[in-house]
Amino acid sequence: MTLDLSMFRRVPIDEIAAPKPGRICHEESWWLVTHEREVLFFTKHSDHASPQCNANKAVADRLFGKYPCCTVERLPIVFLDHDCHDYV
Asked: What is the pTM of this model?
């Protein structure tokens, strides 16, 4: 099965690996990661960027494991931008 990566914002893992002011810390999640070492955020139907991750490896494998362009990887800690509009 192919994955249309144009529906996603791609962010290099190095960009989210270090804390920066205004970012939120997410711990112990399984992420959809491209072969270029980028995590994916779904953006097709919204201005909101939905991180493609899950705390449960079995769920992540089931949802994301079918795409040969990506792997499911555990990232112990990431720091993501946040927008208060995401929560209202």
From this structure: 0.83
